[in-house]
UniProtKB/TrEMBL annotation:
It comes from Enterococcus lactis. Its EC number is 3.6.1.9. It comes from the Bacteria. It is an enzyme of class 3 (hydrolase). This is dTTP/UTP pyrophosphatase. The gene is maf.
């Protein structure tokens, strides 16, 4: 069975390569705007489902397994997606400073016969951040294309005081849960 990763994330590609030797990449182009009053868990699930469905329907992948994933950062029920620019990233990081937030990652594995859904939840506490720390981080450009404006595996790792939950779900791909789900498709 051919496996297709519906993502352009280099982190998801790298992690999937640990458990699958061959796969194709076909990113899904979808509108990632939350619905008004949409709960964060519903939002992240909908994004993963829409990505899987979009890639599946592009070429009717009858003999394929499509894997789609989405991650969002949530602070006080506010969904923090990918920042549009450095100014928005700065606002996000200032909000996260000294706070505990939740990271949700949803994964959908889809074949012609069935869909398997995964929802991973983790909690991350940041140390209080100085303006200098935030600006130094923003200058790296690492905030771009990352929910909540940070990648825990890179320069922002120094912001993290504590995590609870699956580290890899914070990175954006709960590899252990995905591996277990993949076993059920063989």
């Amino acid at each position: 069975m051919k496996i297709i990763l519906a993502s352009q994330s280099p982190r998801r590609k790298e992690l999937l390569a640990h458990i699958v030797s061959e796969f194709e990449i076909e990113p899904a182009d979808i509108d990632e705007t939350p619905f008004p009053d949409e709960l964060p868990v519903d939002y992240v699930r909908r994004m993963a489902e829409e990505k899987a469905r979009t890639v599946w329907e592009q070429k009717e992948k009858k003999d394929s397994l499509v894997i789609a994933s989405d991650t969002t950062v949530v602070l006080n029920q506010e969904i923090m997606g990918k920042p549009e620019d450095m100014a928005e990233a700065e606002v996000m990081l200032k909000k996260l400073s000294g706070e505990t937030h939740t990271v949700y990652t949803a994964v959908v594995l889809k074949t012609k016969e069935r869909e398997e859904r995964i929802l991973a939840e983790a909690h991350v506490t940041f140390y209080p951040l100085t303006d200098e720390e935030i600006n130094r981080y923003l200058e790296t450009g690492d905030y771009a294309d990352k929910a909540g404006a940070y990648g825990i595996q890179n320069a922002a790792s120094v912001f993290v005081k504590e995590i609870s939950g699956d580290y890899y779900s914070i990175v954006g791909f709960p590899i252990g849960a995905v591996n277990q789900a993949l076993k059920t498709f063989n």
